[in-house]
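Hello again, I could really use a second opinion on something today. My current little project is about how a certain protein chain folds up. You're getting the sequence in one-letter code plus the fold written as tokens. Here's the protein in full, and shout if anything looks odd to you:
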Amino acid sequence: MTSNGGFEPVFCTIVPPHVLDKLAQHEDPALAGPARQTLERDAYERTHRRLTTVIGAPAVAAAEETAGAKPHRTIYDARHHQDLPGKKVRGEGDKPGKDATVNRAYAGLGATFDLYLQAYQRDSINGEGLPLNATVHFDEKYNNAFWNGEQMVFGDGDGEIFLDFTIPVDVIGHELTHGVTQYTANLTYFGQPGALNESMSDVFGSLIKQYTLGQTAAEADWLIGAGLLAPRVTGTALRSMKEPGSAYDDDVLGKDPQPATMDHYVRTGRDNGGVHINSGIPNHAFYLAAGALGGHAWERAGQVWYDVLTGGELKSDALFADFATLTVAAARSRYGEGEELQAVLKAWEQVGVRTL
């Protein structure tokens, strides 16, 4: 189902397939082996997800309905197996244990819940208090984290290229935001709509990190997955919203392929039509708008993006220009003809996306 009234059974991972493809071809089995196993597991999960239909209606809770809202978190341990969800190891309100991965997952789910509730009065990712479940220690040397339409899953990484996937809070926020998109605009996971889907997760993943750290737009690093790459990797993160294409340049991973503007838009049939690659363009537009406005990016720029994502007018097959046009309308509707509108207009102009 791909209309706004239903749910797209999408399987979304934080590490793009093109990165794992590159690793899987390496001559060193210590690097290639885990990457191949991760690709195989991702293919299984993706197929499984396509066979599953989630039934329900998206809803956005009103502010008064979220006044006493609280998260309902459960963390499970797969113990390096593949069966989900695994053994329950921490529930809502339980004290931290000795497993740092469990504690980080619990905190990251809470940080995501807090940003959506406090900034946008949204009660969990579906707007109706959906419990937040996560499984850690998934599989052996699993090089990914994903949202499968129902829960979060985190691998421990191979220790050679990727570290524990619970380390960056924006990775947790990124994947859970796929759930928000699933329950709202339901953007098709291919081509430009898919790149917008990925961009929404990067935008709000970054905002969740900034909110947690109390950072302004100027103070933020605008990196997605900082702290995830192992020391041997020449790079800082998976992606950069500030400078798409600069996150890594490594002899094993290759060079970050993200474009910052439409002049370098990548046409490809891989990665669902380049959803993790061309997302750099709307990512950069958000960075530019937030930077121009200053202050906390989740407030004005984030509010505009959230209004469009949840407003009901964003179609599941929206192109960049469709989304950009809606952000202009949302900025004008909420803030009038002031600096917010001008910042949004200029941001899209700078990345080469026209607004109708």
The two ends are 28 Å apart (CA to CA). The chain has a mean pLDDT of 92. Strands lie at 12-13, 73-77, 87-91, 132-136, 145-147, 152-154, 223-224, 239-240, 249-250, 254-255.
